[in-house]
Amino acid sequence: MEKKAASELVLITGGARGLGLAIVQELLSVGYRVATCSRRSTEAIQNLQQQYPNHFNFAALDITDSSAAADWVHQINQSSGPLYGVIHNAAIAQDGLLATLPEVEIDRMLDVDLRAVLKLNRLAIRNLLKTNRGGRIISISSIIAHRGYTGLAVYAAAKAGLEGMTRSLARELGPRGITVNCIAPGYMLSEMSAGLDDKQLQQIVRRTPLGRLATFADVVPAVKFLLSPDAAFITGQSLVIDGGITV
Q1: What residue spans of the chain are helical by DSSP H?
Q2: Which of 69, 149, 160, 245 is deepest in the core (most CB within 10 A)?
Q3: Active-site residue, from 32, 84, 155, 187
Q4: Distance, CA of 33 to CA of 44 (rounded, Å)
Q5: Is the pLDDT confidence value at 47 over 60?
Q6: Is there a catalytic annotation at residue 155?
Q7: Contacts of 132 (CB under 8 A, 6+ apart)
């Protein structure tokens, strides 16, 4: 696997912090070439640019800006060669009852968590089809798409949309050797769960058979696996990594 990974280019959205950054760091460490984007750079991104000057490409952009996203994919293709994998990680969550949630927040979540993914996939798939050598598309979903949670109706709708998209694209792209899958983590200690207080987090832990929250280290190996040749016959699936809370 490692020899193959060294020649492959993977695009990741939202790679400047959190789970996205952990995925970027791991893929670079095993030899993938990585292109990622986020609204702004961070110290961690600057360190990676210095450490992997020939294998790492970062762009500061808003993925809901269709024109900027198209320019970014074109630039990557021109400077770094054809894509092998795409990982949709960028997402936002706004907790709030639907009846009182401002419409602007509804639109913002749907724009980032679903519409931008569909549009970026459209661009990336064209790139993958031109190479005619297969590829990987992975979306970071959530257990929120599988279970109902108060105050997360819009986020759940967006993530469920990703999973429906995954199943349809698996059928569309399977004949061309492109696999399409989701990973659905449970609650993690990250910016996405920052709005939960200690009581809420402990309640989640108590309901989890394995007795803890998910970590980035629980999720990153699954991403590597789905990118690898070992996962060549897996497509249209949602891999749940939640310590058993949805059992």
Answers
A1: 2-5, 18-29, 43-51, 66-80, 103-110, 116-131, 153-173, 198-207, 216-227
A2: 69
A3: 155
A4: 17
A5: yes
A6: yes
A7: 176
